[in-house]
């Protein structure tokens, strides 16, 4: 297994919220090359509490091929009334920080709006737990916001699009954050966009089709985010949508997109019985000739059969090499960060060329 993959942190927040006079932060986190001994809670960059790792049987069973996966839990209840801003949990070994996951808490939690109905939450997260829905949205927003700040900041972003917004899991955080004046969301799920339009009135939402074009003028957006969209599109459809992203982006505008890369393949490559991580990665990378094996887009995902025709929605995995080579003729690839969103999906930051 490549060293860079062993060093990536895998984990989730189950809860990140204020409860009365305290902040509750619950979740789990591990690295492939060994467990963390302690976890440290940081609020807006300031360390406030440490605790030893907690055994979690459910995580150990879910990742049975990782011997130390069960030694991964954390649970903080920190007396910090009305906390807001960045919430980070850092994994420590020998007292040194060697991994982290981050989320955010808005200053006004009411700004996030109402929670979606249970069926809509299930459709986008696979869970009906409202605490997990909020925590996952905050974590994803934190990753995207950090990428924006690394590539010019929010100052020049007048208008943005959440392409594939679902029921507003991430869009709600951009609206609550307030640094982008005009926030749009589109999705093929008309039920979800109709709910967003009612529950998140400061955003602009509409249903769109399976293929381009989108109902926006050329150069309309300074920022587009695409969380777990290209992960479900076969290679030809990916390129059609990349061309459409280029059309709707302003010159110099950013596209922040996620893909399933080699790290995600270690855990979830479809139709493979769980064996060792090394065997799974080797089989995935070597099962086809090099040029074809750089992307696997043949597996149909039936999760949204009621929304899309059979065969449209796929479970797609692609290498860094493929993504850079095939996407860069359309948009400039500024950054490729493995497990850069949600400590799982790879983040690709792209820019429309000026002129």
List keywords for this structure.
single chain, 355 residues, alpha+beta, Immunoglobulin-like, Rossmann fold, 7-stranded mixed β-sheet, 11 helices, 17 strands, 28% helix, globular
Summarize the structure in short.
This protein is α+β, with helices and mostly antiparallel strands. The chain has eleven helices and 17 strands. Helix 8 packs across helix 9 (277-286).
What is the percent of helical residues?
25-40%
Write down the overall geometry. Answer: globular
Structural class, from helix and strand content?
alpha+beta
Continuous helix count: 11
Q: Which consecutive residue ranges, at least 5 long each, have pLDDT under 50?
A: 270-277, 283-292
What is the total tally of β strands?
Answer: 17
**CATH class annotation of the largest domain:** Alpha Beta
- The strands making up the biggest β-sheet line up spatially as 11-10-9-12-13-17-16
- Fill in the CATH topology of the largest domain: Rossmann fold
Give me the CATH architecture of the largest domain, please: 3-Layer(aba) Sandwich
Average the pLDDT over all residues and give the rounded result: 91
**Biggest sheet record:** 7 strands, mixed
- Classify the beta-strand content into a percent band: 25-35%
The total number of structural domains is 2
The CATH superfamily name of the largest domain is Vaccinia Virus protein VP39
**Distance N terminus to C terminus?**
42 Å
Write the element-wise H/E pattern from the N-terminal end onward: HEEEEEHEEEHHEHEHEEHEHHHEEHEE
**Cα Rg:** 20 Å
